[in-house]
Glycosyltransferase
Amino acid sequence: MTIISFFIILSYVALIGSFAYGFHKVPTFKNQTTAHKTTFSIIIPFRNEAENLPQLLDSIKQLQYPSNLFEVLLVNDDSEDDSVDIINNFITSSSLPVTLLNNNRMSPSPKKDAISTAITKANNEWIITTDADCILPQLWLNTFDAFIQENKVECIVAPVKYISQNNFLNTFQILDILSLQGATIGGFGINKPFLCNGANFAYKKTLFKALNGFEGNNQTASGDDIFFLEKTVKHNAKSVAYLKSKTIVINTNAQPSWKSLISQRIRWAAKTSRYNNWFGKLTGSIVLLTNLFIVLAYSFTLMGTMTSQTLVYLLMIKFSIDLYLINKTAQFFNQREVMKFYVFGFIVYPFFCVYVALASMVSTYQWKGRTFKT
């Protein structure tokens, strides 16, 4: 048992350690370009987002990029609240190039359909996807533009963080997304890109068409971002880059309840079995196996099949390597204040991770008022 436990934990240490190493390998981008050239079509699917749309629309208004070089395509996915009225009022009162579209449903994946619908109407060279519950930084498009001018890329992954609130649920989610962002950046640093977030994801329209969009992945409700990243990496890994810059960080809201958080994570976990990237599958397997073993280790210790000393060693090793990566990521995102709750998050996470993984295998989940099969 001791040999098995240390083999599992050492595999985990090697994986997370490689992400920490890769995190340093990705240089921080500094915008030194002054002449704006790139044209963007910003695509934002929405469903029942009346509560979040005002802050999103206000952040669009604050973008410091020439309005003749971008357009915003908001895609209504059968909203049942006041979302459409809010957007129409914004369009009427604003001179910005904002268009409201209705989603053309063609598959079991509403979000993929919404993005595909918008791309058929998009006029510009680059597509950027984000979500309706996000706040866009003022220099968002400026930074994308400068990076594109200085690098030969066709697909760009960019950072996302949760807005801080003073409660454990929010802090737990921040620690979780910091670990995901650390793994995302680290994966690029070791030339194994496997994660991205559709809330801050850009690619050329010609690339989307050349790869036939989401064809082949339409039966999975989520995954518009990761599945397309996989396609792009397979097509030409050198054309994909991570844009590591604080001026491009998207702010978004964490889930308001444990129930909605679990539904979100089940939705995320449900697509992992369909990954085509071997490194992504390996990473998911090692992380799940390690957290499962930590959960079981408590029982093994109580039953006497594992010594308490071995359990303590395992916990200390995992605690240290997780802390190393998350602390680096928190520093980049200016969220070091959440680290004071790291111990509590560390205790809860293995049980949360295992529960979500098991639930994603056997149940349906609710999202945006709809029921999806895992």
